[in-house]
Amino acid sequence: MRMGYGRVVCLSAAMVLVMQFACGSVEADSANGRRIAERWCAECHVVAPGQRHASDAVPTFAQISGSGRFDEATLSAFLANPHHSRMPNLSLTRSEIADLVAYIRRQTH
Ligand code: HEC
């Protein structure tokens, strides 16, 4: 019996979905990082190009990413426990931190 073309397309689409679902839990999601940033960080930081309002004297995400002072590990550690006096501890989960780190590190690229 021949499989119809439509059926093959449908099966491959289902496979892609399953693969994305399976990988989603491990891989950081920078799009979600952006949503978290806009919600929790944009009050003080410029989190994306074009944002007009933020606090003075707070580094933008592009500056943080471009400064070379943070790699993935140090940025995650900072966000898990910000010991800066002026930076609030936002009690982020590990997956929120991973998504934010992925997002921040993409800012200069
Ligand atoms: C209430 C204001 C405020 C909010 C909200 C805030 N920050 Fe900050 N953040 C600051 C300030 C102020 C500093 C600079 C602290 C200093 O230099 O003393 C800072 C510093 C940082 C730094 C370190 C920069 C460096 O070069 O040392 C990172 C990384 C950072 N913030 C990430 C975030 C992320 C991610 C969020 C959202 C989850 C966030 N911040 C939310 C105020 C805020």
Topology:
Blueprint: H1 5-24, H2 30-40, H3 61-66, H4 72-80, H5 94-105
The structure holds heme C (HEC).
Heme C binds at residues 37, 40-41, 43-45, 58-59, 64, 67, 69, 75, 78-79, 84, 86-88, 90, 100.
Domain Cytochrome c: 28-108
InterPro entries: Cyt_c-like_dom, Cyt_c-like_dom_sf
Keywords: Heme, Iron, Metal-binding, Signal
In short:
By secondary structure, this protein is an all-alpha fold. The protein is built from five helices and no strands. It binds heme C (HEC).
Please characterize this protein's 3D structure.
The chain has helices spanning 5-24, 30-40, 61-66, 72-80, 94-105. It has 109 residues and is mainly α. It has one domain (28-105): Cytochrome Bc1 Complex, Chain D, domain 2 (Orthogonal Bundle). The chain starts with a helix and ends with a helix. The model has no long low-confidence stretch (mean pLDDT 85). Heme C binds next to helix 2 and helix 4.
